[in-house]
Amino acid sequence: APGLNEEYTFTNFVVGDNNRFAANAAIAIAKNPGTTYNPCLIYGGVGLGKTHLLQSIGNAVWQEKDEAKIVYVTAEDFTNEFIRSIQENKTHLFKNKYRKADVLLIDDIHFLQKKHETQEELFHTFNALFDAKKQMIFTSDRPVSEIKDITERLQNRFTRGLTVDLQPPQMETAVAILKKKAEKQGVYVANDVINLICQKITTNVRDLEAALTRIIAYAELVNKEVSLEVAQRQLKDFFSSPTQNNITVDIIQRVVADYFNLSSNELKGKKRTRQVAFPRQMAMYITREITEASMTDVGLEFGGRDHTTVMHACQRISSRMRTDPTIEDIIQTLIRKIKEEGS
Ligand code: ADP
Ligand code: MG
After folding, report:
1. With the C-alpha atoms ordered 325, 330, 335, 336, is the resulting torsion angle positive or negative?
2. How far, in Å, CA of 283 to CA of 260, rounded?
């Protein structure tokens, strides 16, 4: 469909346990837009296929019925367009465009936080389309309840239909995604190279693809198949562990646990009593401060927690530090100990 990437189709979307529910919902919606699952909200971390899935719905509806008016927009563009329409006295055109859609696809709605007027406008667009039984699908990089500064009534609308989530792919699915991609480009990449990439990159499909692209580019330049050894060398910076110097997350967990008379396992475990939760939050905060680990990495290192949990922990600790100097002292002491251990 116009305005959509034609590569983003259901055929090109590899289904695994991590995304099956979302993919099936999307397929069902494309078959019967505006009926059962309206609206639909797809949420998941960066690079997990939200945009791909969202546009696949648009492309599939278009295939069936090319007079259908399919409108895809990122929340950011929606916002900018709305502001411009106000400045140019053309809000009627803006309203017309969005309220006449048969299928409205809005990507990355977390961008709407704090954009109050745009939220208001979207609320009315929503109601108009909902009443007319037009399909709406939204994506977000976090659950709607965690989007800050968004009106309750809009939150409410977003989650009124079906909510599905995307998780990082397991090994088999990751391998299938890369094989499909290599095949599409007509390039042979050895299985052990694909396995290597999938073992090392576990959080995000975009990074998986970027690593494969690098290998393919290299293979084409040297005009021969890439061996495991060469792949390892070529991808070194992709694989650099989420740590700096010799400081590992293990060391951080050990030092923090020791300091609070806990074990590393308790720090990574499920218990949420204050005695464990607070040291755990500190350890997460420190990991973010002194290593290169992303929120997602930290979550995985701490018992497979979600990146939003890590984000909250970090926010909590930094606000406590501002009001309570002893906490800042403890953090400094811990960081010193960790650096000693890691050197
Ligand atoms: P997001 O919008 O969640 O950040 P994208 O939809 O842009 O992620 O996906 C990132 C890249 O990964 C895209 O090139 C997309 O085609 C690819 N991708 C993600 N999930 C899959 C999948 N299940 N099968 C095939 N490709 C995928
Ligand atoms: Mg996206």
Report:
1. positive
2. 11
**What is the CATH topology of the domain spanning 249-336?**
Chromosomal Replication Initiator Protein Dnaa; Chain: A; (1.10.1750)
pLDDT band at 244 (very low <50, low <70, confident <90, very high): very low
CA of 48 to the centre of ligand 1 (A): 5
20-166: CATH superfamily? P-loop containing nucleotide triphosphate hydrolases (3.40.50.300)
ipTM over 0.95: yes
Among 206, 207, 213, which residue has the most ligand 1 atoms within 8 Å of its CB, making it the best to mutate? 206
CA 154 to ligand 1 center in whole angstroms: 27
SS3 annotation, 178-211: HHHHHHHCCCCCCHHHHHHHHHHCCCCHHHHHHH
Q: What is the pLDDT of residues 156-180, one digit of tens each?
A: 999 999 999 999 999 999 999 999 9
Q: Is the CB of 181 under 6 A from ligand 1?
A: no
Which one is the CATH code of 171-239: 1.10.8.60, 3.90.1150.10, 3.55.40.20, 1.20.950.20? 1.10.8.60
The pLDDT, as a whole number, for residue 243 is 45
Question: Which pLDDT tens digit goes with each residue over 197-227?
Answer: 998 888 899 999 999 999 999 998 888 889 9
Centre of ligand 2 to C-alpha 283, Å, is 30
